[in-house]
Hints:
The protein is α+β, with helices and mostly antiparallel strands. The chain has a domain at 18-69: Ubiquitin-like (UB roll), CATH 3.10.20. The chain is built from one helix and three strands; from the N terminus they run ββαβ. The protein has one helix spanning 43-53; strands spanning 18-25, 33-40, 61-66. The longest helix is centred in the middle third of the chain and has 11 residues, at 43-53. The radius of gyration is 13 Å and the shape is flat.
Amino acid sequence: MTAMDEGVKYRRVTGEAVEYEVFARKTRGEPLHQVGSVVAPDDDLAAAYARATYDEERWIEMAIVRKDHFIELWRPGE
């Protein structure tokens, strides 16, 4: 069961739409990996867009993360 299945409430974001990275896995032993991204004005719509856009696989878990919440440790070429 995923956090989305457990009724997690997503934080509303005010202002312009932001980009969210979408992560998923097919089996329990597999690590989460990035499957794409979506742009949405708030967390609720981002979750809906991610489910609708990346539903071609039978994921056992899917998660979204606001791109501006990532903390970069290093970047190639810098």
